[in-house]
Design brief:
alpha/beta; four-stranded antiparallel beta sheet; imidazoleglycerol-phosphate synthase activity; amino-acid biosynthesis; lyase
Length: about 350
């Protein structure tokens, strides 16, 4: 009977009382999204034809004597980083721009083996473009991406082809054709599956007003140095083919174009910082982060745990404001364990990370 009385009062609009009353819902604390630490493996064939992990200094992967730097086997290193707590693992096939990707069975096998052992998102980049093979058959960029996804990739990273697509986008009056690699892949797999990798280099200018590109101020304490002639401003020129060819686009133009085309994330390398261990190019990260709404991954230059916290800290506090930080050489050479980076971020208490 007591239950019927409670129900009757509820139906009459009074609601339950006493022990049957429903307690108010507790207030929820909204936590900021965790920042990601990504291990990157630059993969290419060594002089004997075996796939190895290498690392460049300003994109030069060879020692003084000419031999290729060899940091080990791709799958073994990737599994190590997964065990150490990497939030994601990225494979960059750094010579794929001159190879026929669908015929690159060793790289596809690396992905298959990694996917069996590593249970965090895997990104693969290199050679994702439309091309004509030796038989004269045209292969679409989507077919290349299909092969990578079937082999176990969660995301693909597009480099030079994205620069070409951005050029066409602006030349056509910002028309979306639906035929670029970014559009094709994001339409089929979702924009979260498409990362665009930037390979910019610094171009110093004396007068930003007369420069047609988007400039940043440099020379601040602990930041990017002044130019060779004391220049206080620079813009970032987007390159193609692993830094071998300059374009007429700056990073702001590229970021805004690829966002419109359907990219879901941006990987910001910096040729000037690559392998230097002097910290990320925070001016670059802040500029791109302010120019678009996409998540931004800071890359190139990490030399100590403090560099990660600087890249991931909010821009308003002098940081880069990046959503993730990627590193390679310091992990390959065991200079800084990946776990030590996460421990530093946790102890500093300013950047939320996963453990």
């Amino acid at each position: 009977m007591a239950g019927l009385e409670v129900l009757g009062r509820w139906l009459q609009g009074g609601g339950p009382t006493g022990a049957a009353a429903v307690a108010p819902a507790p207030s929820l604390t909204v936590l900021p999204p965790a920042r990601r630490i990504i291990a990157c493996l630059d993969v290419r064939s060594n002089d004997s034809g075996d796939l190895v992990v290498t690392k460049g200094d300003c994109y030069d992967c060879r020692e003084t004597g000419g031999e290729l730097r060899n940091h080990g086997k791709p799958v073994a290193l990737a599994e190590r980083y997964y065990q150490e707590g990497a939030d994601e693992v990225t494979f960059l096939n750094i010579t794929a721009f001159r190879d026929l990707v669908l015929a690159d069975q060793p790289m596809l096998e690396v992905l298959r083996s990694a996917a069996e052992r590593i249970f965090v998102p895997l990104t693969v980049g290199g050679g994702i473009r439309s091309y004509v093979d030796e038989s004269g058959k045209k292969n679409c960029a989507l077919e290349v991406a299909d092969a990578y996804f079937r082999a176990g990739a969660d995301k693909v990273s597009i480099g030079s082809d994205a620069v070409e697509a951005a050029r066409d986008y602006y030349a056509s009056g910002k028309t979306l054709t639906g035929e670029t690699s970014i559009e094709l892949i994001s339409t089929k797999y979702g924009r979260q599956a498409v990362v665009v990798s930037f390979d910019p280099r610094r171009v110093y200018v004396a007068d930003p007003v007369s420069c047609e590109h988007n400039c940043v101020e440099v020379g601040g304490e602990g930041g990017t140095p002044l130019g060779p002639n004391g220049e206080r401003f620079a813009w970032y020129c987007c390159t193609l083919k692993g830094g071998r060819e300059d374009s007429d686009l700056d990073v702001v133009q590229l970021a805004q174009a690829v966002e419109a085309l359907g990219a879901g994330e941006l990987l910001l390398n910096c040729i000037d910082r690559d392998g230097q261990g002097s910290g990320y190019e925070l001016e670059l990260v802040r500029q791109v982060k302010a120019a678009c709404t996409l998540p931004v991954i800071a890359s190139s230059g990490a030399g100590c745990p403090e560099h990660f916290s600087a890249a991931l800290a909010p821009a308003a506090e002098g940081g880069g404001g990046a959503d993730a930080a990627l590193a390679a050489g310091i992990f390959h050479r065991s200079e800084v364990p990946l776990g030590a980076v996460k421990a530093h971020l946790k102890n500093a208490g300013k950047v939320p990370v996963r453990f």
